[in-house]
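FAQ

Q: What does a record look like?
A: Structure on top, sequence underneath. For example:
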């Protein structure tokens, strides 16, 4: 396999994907209503006809990664057998969140549980205790195991092909075991272009949502107006700041910001737990965790074929498609920072830790908001229905030190925004420079400006331009869900072959060790036998020598005695 990932020249994938994204942006800017209508129709068709596929495939993804982690294959390392993790556990977890999903936690942490309290899943009456419990449970369901299973499949496959098989950091690399060198042709390029478009549109949507939430927060705590001018100014400032981070690279830029962000998020989380309705939050945590564990299988495989309910399509299936659209971006970035970890370590960090933190985050912020809503302290529900980006700040506004915590929340979102832009520009740079692990600063800047420009143009265009782009990225998730299913087959082929090869190596090593042990035992036994024989021979030889010596000595003594006797007789 050729190590083509050192070539970081822009290629066909960059040109074609940039043109296609440009067409989307122009359509959204010139005729946002038309794009919104077309995207809406496409989304409705997809949800109606392929909702079952999303539900089944995401449930399968969760089951697959769990079985993989606990199987003997979990011991295999993402890299060469002697490699060890490149980043500490804390930095690694920080970068996982800061890559982009942390924005989702902050944006939806308050809004989603409250939204489901009013707009409930089928069979639950709105504005009841059951609706509050279900709201928290479904919010965790949408941000817990399932999205991280989706990201982990892409991340695991790409980490394996990059660091174990020396293939470039491209989605198409995962298909090498199936289609061989054709990944370097039009088939591989088509897969990579689809991944770039899904990533670019998804990240541009996040840029827009983050700008909305930051300006919403600033307008809530200061006289700064929540206008298009403010939103585009925020995007310009973040773009300027991310360029400094991008210039530093992953180790210094993203890693440092991620460590800071994890600490800031932790401080805000602990503060709300301590000064908020602590007992209510802790009870909600236990109830939500128990309800999630108990009902996760049923929620994963429940649809509504006998009713006209659209809740599942507009919520659960919508989120599954959105997470799959994010999978190329999250997968490539997670792969980049996970070198040297075993599959089991990887799954613990990418699947279990974020899922537990999702339960804690949503029950803390969503539980506090529900407590305020149910107690009649603040109309959080009305705010969620009208201005969802203000939900977090309205909740913090009802707690002590609200000015400080709201400012901290703005800083948190801002750093998430910068790290998302940084990691997105890195990933898109890698995907459009033949999978280079160190794309040039120029290419990273180019993608950063393209994404920022896309978000700005669609915010300015109004009339659903940003929503249309989000919908388009979700539609792009359908073919990528099929690609992910094939990825699993490819992954199993590679793991199976390598596990068998390692098994043969282990057998050969064991045979050598056993032979060495037998050899040592036989050596000792033969040594003892030889020593015994040598001792017998030596003793025999020594006896003969001693016998000869004694005979000689006796002879000498006898001769001396005879001589002495003769001398004595002469004297007489």
């Amino acid at each position: 396999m050729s190590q083509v990932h050192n070539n970081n020249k822009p290629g066909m994938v960059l040109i074609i994907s940039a043109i296609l994204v440009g067409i989307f942006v122009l359509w959204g800017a010139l005729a946002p209503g038309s794009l919104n209508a077309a995207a809406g129709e496409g989304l409705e068709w997809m949800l109606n006809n392929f909702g079952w596929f999303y539900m089944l495939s995401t449930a399968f993804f969760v089951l697959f990664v769990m079985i993989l982690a606990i199987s003997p294959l979990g011991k295999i390392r993402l890299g060469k057998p002697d490699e060890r993790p490149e980043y500490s556990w804390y930095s690694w977890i920080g970068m996982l969140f800061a890559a982009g999903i942390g924005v989702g936690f902050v944006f939806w942490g308050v809004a989603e549980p409250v939204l489901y309290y009013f707009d409930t899943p089928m069979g639950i009456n709105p504005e009841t205790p059951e609706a509050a419990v279900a709201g928290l449970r479904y919010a965790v369901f949408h941000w817990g195991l399932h999205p991280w299973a989706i990201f982990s499949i892409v991340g695991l496959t790409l980490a394996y092909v990059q660091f174990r098989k020396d293939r470039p950091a491209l989605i198409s690399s995962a298909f090498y075991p199936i289609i061989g060198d054709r990944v370097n042709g039009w088939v591989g390029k088509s897969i990579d272009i689809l991944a770039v478009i899904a990533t670019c549109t998804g990240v541009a949507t996040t840029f827009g949502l983050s700008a909305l939430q930051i300006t919403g927060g600033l307008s809530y705590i200061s006289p700064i107006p929540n206008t298009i001018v403010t939103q585009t100014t925020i995007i310009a400032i973040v773009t300027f700041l991310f360029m400094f981070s991008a210039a530093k690279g992953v180790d210094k830029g993203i890693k440092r910001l991620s460590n800071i962000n994890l600490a800031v998020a932790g401080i805000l989380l602990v503060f709300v737990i301590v000064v908020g309705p602590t007992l209510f939050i802790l009870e909600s945590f236990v109830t939500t965790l128990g309800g999630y564990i108990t009902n996760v299988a049923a929620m994963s495989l429940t649809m509504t074929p006998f009713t006209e309910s659209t809740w599942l399509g507009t919520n659960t299936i919508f989120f599954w498609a959105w997470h799959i659209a994010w999978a190329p971006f999250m997968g490539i970035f997670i792969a980049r920072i996970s070198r040297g970890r075993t599959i089991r370590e990887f799954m613990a960090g990418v699947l279990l830790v974020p899922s537990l933190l999702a339960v804690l985050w949503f029950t803390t912020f969503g539980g506090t908001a529900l407590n305020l809503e149910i107690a009649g302290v603040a109309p959080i529900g009305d705010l969620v229905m009208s201005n969802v980006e203000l939900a977090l700040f309205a909740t913090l506004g009802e707690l002590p030190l609200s000015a400080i915590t709201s400012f901290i929340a703005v800083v948190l979102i801002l750093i998430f925004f910068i790290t998302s832009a940084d990691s997105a520009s890195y990933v898109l740079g890698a995907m459009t420079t033949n999978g280079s692990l160190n794309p040039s600063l120029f290419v990273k800047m180019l993608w950063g400006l393209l994404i920022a420009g896309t978000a700005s143009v669609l915010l300015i265009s109004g009339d659903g331009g940003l929503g249309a782009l989000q919908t388009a990225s979700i539609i792009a998730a359908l073919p990528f869900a099929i690609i992910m299913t094939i990825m699993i087959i490819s992954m199993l082929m590679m793991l199976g072959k390598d596990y068998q090869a390692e098994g043969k190596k282990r057998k050969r090593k064991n045979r050598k060790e056993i032979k060495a042990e037998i050899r040592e035992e036989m050596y000792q036994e033969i040594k003892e036998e030889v020593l015994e024989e040598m001792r017998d021979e030596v003793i025999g030889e020594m006896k003969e020598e001693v016998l000869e010596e004694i005979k000689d000595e006796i002879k000498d003594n006898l001769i001396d005695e005879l001589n002495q006797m003769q001398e004595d007789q002469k004297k007489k």
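Q: Is there anything notable about this one?
A: The chain has one domain: 29-498.
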